[in-house]
Amino acid sequence: MKWIYLWIALAAITLNSFCVPEIFDQRHALKKHKKAEDFKVTVFRQYPNNKCTSGYLAVNGNIICYTLEKPWIDNINNISSIPEGTYGGILRYDHSDHWRIELVGVPNRPNIQIHIGNVLDDTKGCILVGTALGPDLCSIKGGTSAPAYAKLKNAFYGTDNPTSTPDKNISVEIVGH
Fold it and tell me: Would the CA dihedral through 72, 73, 78, 82 be positive or negative?
């Protein structure tokens, strides 16, 4: 009977020594090479009027800030907000803020970006962000644009102090007029 227990104990040690690390290494390798979650920005235009378009911005379904855009005037460059739709996104590091999401594929509208700003004069058709709208719903409350921008950047990197850029596909969906 002792031999049976000894044999079972040896079999368990052998299995743990050879099989479990192999399984662990395979799982670890899968996690290590798994692509980061895609980054989906959705702009919900909640308050459109003839002076401006404001609403809110969500990242992967989580609302993080308000938005401010020009009013819809037939997609006229520098005067109008952009058409509804889903666009690709790329990161730009060449502005004074050293980080922006630029929308790709906007019809007849190059260089549409999400960035800091408080009033419509701060944009030529881009999307401004803030943690609060002004009482007129056509401005970003002073002092809230930079914190909203920091929240957006943190949502992308997962930290306030990134050391590398994650491998994420960026898409920006614009909903409503």
Answer: positive
What amino acid is encoded at 40 in this protein? K
Residue-wise burial string across 70-80, b where 16 or more C-beta atoms lie within 10 A, e elsewhere = bbbeeeeeeeb
**pTM (global) more than 0.90:** no
169: phi then psi, degrees, rounded to nearest 5: -85, 135
Residue pair 167/35 in contact by the 8 Å Cβ criterion: yes
Distances (CA, A) of 23 to 9, 11, 35, 135: 20, 17, 20, 58
Question: Which tens digits make up the pLDDT trace of 18-68?
Answer: 444 444 444 444 444 455 689 999 999 999 999 999 999 999 999 999 999
CB 109 within 8 A of CB 82: yes
Instruction: Identify the three-state secondary structure at position 129.
Output: strand
Sign of the alpha-carbon dihedral angle for 134, 140, 143, 148: positive
